Amino acid sequence: MNKIRNFILLFFATLGTLFFFTNDASANTIHTVQPGDTFWKLGVKYGVSVHSIKKLNNRTSDMLYVGERIKIPASVSESEKDLLARLVRAEAQGEPYAGKVAVATVVLNRVDHPGFPNTVHDVIYERTSTGHYAFTPVANGQINKPADAESIRAVNEALAFRGQGSGSLYFYNPKTATNQWIKSRPITVIIGNHVFAK
């Protein structure tokens, strides 16, 4: 009987510990403002949109004060950041840095758009109406190669920029694109070899 009671006590103690750590892990990060910090730098550092940081902290001004504590909201998971950086490397290798940020932004815009899946993973692995993957690197396996440092930085910058910009949902290389529908979409910007559209 004592063994059963000890087992039950141990079970609930373990459960309580797990609950405590789960709650702690999902809590917002607190950042103590250092000299030179800006909302933009915090957004890039933590991979979180500037808009969401300001909203969580009820801020309308861009002013930060050294020593104040700023709550940093949760962002996409580290595994999704890695997946997005791998896609950026595969899709925008050899493209300007701004083009890498723009590719990551397309994925994030799709996540936020009601016409697409609502996670980075599901957007990247989405299939088109013809059954093909929406992104070529998923089909040809390039998505499985590790991300480089510049692609990782581009993803964090795209996350900080999230919710701003012209709302690009697509990109293509006009020299290699065979889909005529994509070429009919309104162009938002051209960066390097890629045309971005919505």
Can you walk me through this structure?
The protein has 9 helices and 5 strands; from the N terminus they run αβααβαααααβαββ. The protein is mostly helical and 198 residues long. The strands form 2 sheets. It has a 3-stranded antiparallel β-sheet, covered by helices on one side. It has a two-stranded antiparallel sheet with strand order 1-2.
Outline the fold blueprint:
Blueprint: H1 2-26, E1 29-32, H2 39-46, H3 50-56, E2 69-72, H4 78-92, H5 97-112, H6 120-124, H7 136-140, H8 149-161, E3 170-172, H9 180-183, E4 187-191, E5 194-197
Antiparallel strand pairs: 1-2, 3-5, 4-5
Keywords:
198 residues, two-stranded antiparallel ribbon, 9 helices
What's the main sheet like?
3 strands, antiparallel
From N to C, what is the helix and strand string? HEHHEHHHHHEHEE
Count the DSSP helices: 9
- Overall shape: it is elongated
Number of strands: 5
Strand order of the largest sheet: 3-5-4
**What is Rg?**
21 Å
- Termini Cα gap: 68 Å
What's the pLDDT, averaged over the residues? 87
Structural class: mainly alpha
What is shown here, in short?
The chain has 198 residues and is mostly helical. It has 9 helices and 5 strands; from the N terminus they run αβααβαααααβαββ.
